[in-house]
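Help! Submission page says 'invalid entity' but I think these are all valid:
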Amino acid sequence: MLPAAGEPAAGDSWGMLACLCTVLWHLPAVPALNRTGDPGPGPSIQKTYDLTRYLEHQLRSLAGTYLNYLGPPFNEPDFNPPRLGAETLPRATVNLDVWRSLNDKLRLTQNYEAYSHLLCYLRGLNRQAATAELRRSLAHFCTSLQGLLGSIAGVMAALGYPLPQPLPGTEPTWAPGPAHSDFLQKMDDFWLLKELQTWLWRSAKDFNRLKKKMQTPAAAVTLHLEAHGF
Amino acid sequence: MRSRVDDAKIPEPRFWSNWSSWKEADAQKSLGRDPLFLFPKDKLVEEGSNVTICYMSRNQQDNISCYLEGQQIHGEQLDSNVSAFKLNKVSFIRKTGTNIFCKVDQKDVIKGIVLFVSKVLEEPKDFSCETQDFKTLTCTWDPGTDTSLPKRSSQSYTLFESFSGKKILCEHKNSCNWQVDSDSQEMYNFTLVAENALGNRSVSVLFSLTHRVHPKTPYNLFLKNVSGTKATVTWKVHPIGNYSTLLCQLDLLGEGNVIQQHNVSIKENGEYLLSELEPDTEYMARVRCADANHFWKWSGSISQKFITAEAAPSEALDVWRNVKSVSGRPTVTLFWKPLSKLHANGKILSYNVTVENLDRLSGLEVHSVPATANGTELTLDQDSYQIHVTALNSAGPSPASVIVVSGDPGNEEVEEERVNGTEDGFSVSWKPQSGKAIGYVVEWCDHPQDLPCDLQWKNLSSNTTSTVISSGAFRPGVRYNFRIYEISTERMAYLLEKKAGYLKELAPSDNPQVVVSNLTSHSFTLSWKDYSTDSQPGFIQGYYVYLRSKAEKECHPGFKKATLPDKSACCQHRIDNPEQKTFVMENLQPESVYEFLVTPYTSAGSGPLDAFTKVTTPDEYSHILIRIILPMIVCVLLIMITCYLKSQWMKEKCYPDIPDPYKSNVLSLIKSKENPHLTIMNVSDCVPDAIEVIHKPEGSKIQFLGASKSLTETEFTKPAYLYLLPAEKNYSGPGPCICFENLTYNEAAADSGSCGHFPVTPEALPGQPGPLTSPENLLKALEKNYMNSLGETAAGEASLNYVSQLASQMSGDKDSLPANPPEPVLCSEYKMQMAIPLGLASPPPAENSGLSSTTPLDQSEHYR
């Protein structure tokens, strides 16, 4: 049973999670996960898939707390504002055919790049949070997301794909400019959480597809990607 | 627009400048390219402010709806493109602000603002400054509500001193340290300004530095030379400047309360001698100091606990005694009450009991009793003794408590009086006797029903004649006995009075065990002598005797009708004397069932009316019958026993086997009175002239056989012999006759042994044609005849039965029969002939018996 995100003083779950993240972070270095090893990338893909499902669950709790913190209308279920200031966020939604046509390397690379950016934004969110409890929850989630990033890197290494190198000058930053109003900032926070949620859904599909492909390479997998409102 | 100086350095009043001139702005131009503009952008206001929000739209056809915290709001349209919303007295909702947004319907256009509402900045409260060392002034205050918001810092505090013109920004929200430069400045005027983005609040204080001295907590508090009643306290203080004097307050606390308080003025070192302390008591010394010249605040306190030394117990023990006789020797049990902590002055180690004989010169006898004991037992003799009891602790003994006891218990025969108990206890009073008493002692037991009974006593002065004895142990329904002693000048106790009483009398809980005696048809006696009236839950005033009977409806005299709790009626008799423990129930009906109950009563009521006892009176004549029949039975038994014991004598006297005519009294009477020449007829004179033949049916013989005894078991060593002479056909004159030895004849004997006249079958006696002339022959004949009679006696066979008895002169002793047939002698007379029924005269022969003659049986049975 995994702990609910944002639960204060959950020492055990913290320790368990730190252990899990450490393991995942070091997955690329584990010889058994290298292509040369017998087990192949299967187990690490499975673990990555499990981690995405866990983060999905964890984010549901965190998003509820944070949107309440922002106040109405951001915590209303049918609030669906336009992406005004969130253009820099990596989009998870993609055309189904395009998604199907993605090869493993590209699929993994997009995942890796998206979470790298999202993690950076999320850390900025954490710095801004006014309450200690919320900061703890965000820091907890950031640690988990860092673990997912490491896990994806491990899968890519296992499959022999190089990690994408960030281009100079494109380092994502979270710095609201003076022209960025507080309302727009709240909109950005809203979209960050929403996009994160969508990415976790997509990653679950991605890794499920990858997992099946590793087991039965010829098997055809159809993906039905749905975007649910918060 | 107008302006005003807002600086603490500038003294009030501060004036506003004039308003600037109006300037117009084109709203449409300010929109830029956006289709919708919302104003003001991210406004910060104080809670309770009124805020106006307006929006401008580029296109008039756009339908715009606005929301405040998710709720749609409707504003006032100022222009075709401009609308305004007025928010009155906005309240703080959350730190992330209040969200207001407008959107253009059917378009993906949304504009919003966040209205940050800050809490009201409060004026600092309790602002004050003080110094502990004349080097640093510490100012403290209560900041009140925090007004911080995200991305907007909380209020800041600035301390400004007007005399020196110095200003510092405080690091903390509630305190600030100000460095005192030198001794030059005496007065300080501080202004504390609290400031945030929306405004400021300030508070000022003016004071002299020497009036705001708050000394540091004293240190090194020690106690020296602690004795039983005194102790010296020393302590140190941190110096304040060069000339300052401190006033220190020294508190002495005992059990949490301040017992003594002393003020001591010191520079640096303090010392004080505490006196009037109690020995062996824990105290706490506590010291705090303040500026002696200008009191501002007490410093913190320092305290130290200490225990005073022990001292000898200050008071004599309260001792009492109980004298009783054990195995004839007076035994004195001494009791004493432990000394209170106030008087013990330390831990009691032991008690010393010194016994001094007052009648004889002998050495003192000293007993040491452990501290845990509250008494001791001494076995003395009949002399008088003076006993000293002291309590010892490490510092010495207590004053001695003296008591004199004597082997003679004194006058114990004091009549007991009753005393009434109340809620407060027992009010006991007494009459002084000697007038020389030095005091009185009232003694009682807290638990009189237990052993030991927890003896208690109360000392009273000589001028007291009454007291109230109260104890938490007193319970209702328990009899408490109080003994009042007078203490003589010799310190000897004499019993003065006895009192007994109940705190509250209760009804008896049990009824006495009643014994019924003297039960007759008309009365019976009830008695309950074992019933103790002293151990009851109240003074027994008497008894109720209840009687009920189904036969009698009316009550007997002395009884009255009463109704029991179960509504049944009965008769009640009251006995007013508690010592009357018997009652005779009279005038009862014979053969009737009566139920009775005896229950005692106290002032609180009677005992339980539940267990009636049933008594049934006997019939009227039974006792008479018993009086007659019983003596009769006794008499008959006595006669029978006598007869049994004297049976031989009786037999010889009354019915001898062979009556001796010469011994007959009748004969002597006849001889003497009527015919002195009368003689007794000899047997030889008698000639038998008739034989009685009895026809015996077979049935009776069978019956006889069935009831007979085995002749083998029967004594047959001395059979009776019938000496028969053959009866000649022509014999007619007197001559030798027949001599009968037998007393009786039964059928069997008659069959075989009759005098020559019995029918002898040829088969039975084939070789015996003549008469039986010897016993052997006779026995044989008898045997054979008996065998025949068993098997062959035919019905209708005639039997010959002699019923005559002859007494021979020679046959006084029947056991010494002659071996030869005696010479025929003259028959004199027949006497006491009798025929015995066959079934009774002799037992029948057993099946294996070879003999049929039962003549000896008669003898044997007779002597048995």
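Support: the input was valid. A stray whitespace character was the problem, and the output above is from the cleaned input. The first helix of chain A runs from residue 11 to 25.
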